[in-house]
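User: My instructor asked us to take a sequence, write out its structure as tokens, and then describe one feature of it. I'm not sure where to start. Here is the sequence I was given:
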Amino acid sequence: MLRSLVGSEMCIRDRYQRRVRGSLEPMAKRWDVMTDGERDEFLLWLQPNLLPGIQAKSRTDVDITHDRRAIRRILAVFGEVGYEQKQRLDELEKNISAEVADAHFDVSAVPRAGDVVPLAKFLDAQNNRELSLNDEVFHDKVVVVDFWATWSGPCEASMHASAELVGRRGEEWATHVVFVAISMDKSSGTVRERVRERAWNDLHHMWCGPGTWRSEPAVTLGIDAVPFMLVIGRNGVINYRGPPHEIEVEKLVEELLQAPSIKE
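Assistant: Let's start with the prediction itself. The structure tokens for your sequence are:
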């Protein structure tokens, strides 16, 4: 009996593997119209193919519109992986969608501490010129990035702390450290006005661009809350990713300045 079950499981996995490789005709179905057997068969193939940090669950969804109440089953795929897994995550989504026409995805591949900062294009808050944290101006420097918004009270404290630190250490760090403030506001005009009011002129100000949270750079870097901070070493690797109040920025910058230059 055990041999029969193992053989059946291997057969199921082989069939799905051949299907996602394209050797079998794709047969995408809605999750709620699949039979219980088809759902179980798909999950049997899917579970060992999920990336660490990603989960898939069959759930009941209630859709209420006007006076109608519809209940249906959905396949929910959710979780987060490091940015280096982005290609594999994209492939997983493609393979699932080839089988389940209406799978619900809430997944992301975001850069973590230890990852090289990915290419993400922001706009200069003064002139809307495109810039990225990979540009030559940031090359071989420690880069401290504050993500903020004018409407956020906690961001005021974070921005004041960065401005105060630059005021104290800016001259000493001038050629080795850059402080960048990236706003998640809806317009760059709002950013310029607040910067002028607060005299935060020693920070390099950028704007996420149209779309705010859904803008390409915000999605690429996984920014979904403010205040938020990235600290990038001279080698372009993210050393810290998280709320600014959870680290001693000055101490961390000093430590990163002692690390070998990428030119050495």
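For the description part of your assignment, you could build on this observation: The longest strand covers residues 68-82. Try explaining in your own words what that tells you about the chain.
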